[in-house]
């Protein structure tokens, strides 16, 4: 990968060793071609469905029941495991089968419910791909269409910004060094991918890919956290670190880079991290050589597919915090005042808390995304005419947004306007031919033609 990066003028020859080392880190391996791997073939059963993984001459195949798909990408560094993506036209889907490194076996991908039927139709959205691909160019207004093949792996620009000026004239002032940024901007470089929260809400007209190193995260999107939940999540490292006594005592001095070298993984990890601890705790009396073993134990994650991840709360040895009920959401850092009601309202709507979402979204009706969410709140409350009116405004704000047209179609059907509902659902398909839920809705609108709509979707998948 490093040669491609140098060709893009991202890094100068004096940085070749760094780039070579970076390619071996988790970020450098965040997305790869599966043909480069040598994982075993395996077969299994989930409920009434048989599944299998097999290597063929042209790559890796996953099979569930009678469906077989060839995998285009492996997502994840492989330290804990990998998920897999396949392509249909310009759309990306996730396989229900994943590799778990610690167990050395294949199993269901995270998020697939035990007992439920599995298929190959989970869409891979732009916000998901953002943290794994160097670039992906999602089609505006689509759910999972991409104008270009994703560029594998995270590369230098994700943390250092545009490298062209630095390649042309290497000097300190024309490249972003996160260490030299103000704390919030410095931390945002890591938080763009390592702070998931309960919801991530872009500002109007923004996408996650608009973030550039040197910005504060809230210039592009805000992250909303559960107020009281203690469940351990895979990508909430920044939130966990902020809860630690070490980070609190440091003021703003401690950050991810205090312990992690993003340019290379240490050859002797135990001694490396012990030295990081002792740089602040020189007078501590350790009970062993592995500080992290007791204070940062590997913990089962609520969204990690039956595996364990390092707990960044740097806590005292003992039982982990017991998960408690979520009583609300809060912003990690508040956005500008004009966006606060909108952001929190969209976060609550995404979390399914319609009662809290409603009054907040009503304050921001002029925004298309907020209108779309408010329309769904009306629809779920049975206020169909109000839903139709608001969702029509959302579609007018962005006519080529397939999901907004689909939502409008659902509201029209609920209001008894079948012909208009059918027209909107067909418009959604014209914009995004593999928008599965549009075919499901059309089958509901025209139950006598349900088999036709299922067959039409299958035909689109095979193109």
Keywords, please?
36% helix; 4-stranded antiparallel β-sheet; 3 domains; globular; 463 residues; 18 helices; alpha+beta
What's the topology here?
Elements (H helix, E strand, L loop, with lengths): L1 H6 L8 H7 L8 E2 L9 E5 L2 E8 L2 E6 L2 E4 L2 E3 L5 E8 L2 E4 L2 E4 L4 E4 L13 E2 L2 H5 L2 E3 L15 E2 L4 H4 L3 H5 L14 H12 L4 E4 L18 E6 L10 H7 L1 H5 L19 H10 L12 H5 L2 E3 L7 E3 L18 E3 L5 H14 L3 H9 L5 H13 L3 H14 L4 H13 L3 H14 L4 H10 L4 H13 L1
Antiparallel strand pairs: 1-6, 2-3, 3-4, 4-5, 6-7, 7-8, 7-9, 8-11, 9-10, 12-13, 14-15, 15-18, 16-17
How far apart are the first and last residues' alpha carbons, in Å?
31 Å
Oligomer designation: single chain
Radius of gyration: 24 Å
For the biggest sheet, the summary is:
7 strands, antiparallel
Total E-strand runs: 18
Mean pLDDT, rounded to whole units?
Answer: 88
Tell me about this structure.
The structure is a single chain. By secondary structure, this protein is an alpha+beta fold. Helix content is 36%, strand content 16%. The protein has helices at 2-7, 16-22, 126-130, 157-160, 164-168, 183-194, 237-243, 245-249, 269-278, 291-295, 337-350, 354-362, 368-380, 384-397, 402-414, 418-431, 436-445, 450-462, and strands at 31-32, 42-46, 49-56, 59-64, 67-70, 73-75, 81-88, 91-94, 97-100, 105-108, 122-123, 133-135, 151-152, 199-202, 221-226, 298-300, 308-310, 329-331. Strands 1, 6, 7, 8, 9, 10 and 11 form a 7-stranded antiparallel β-sheet that branches. A 4-stranded antiparallel β-sheet has the order 2-3-4-5, with no helix packed on it. The longest helix has 14 residues, at 337-350.
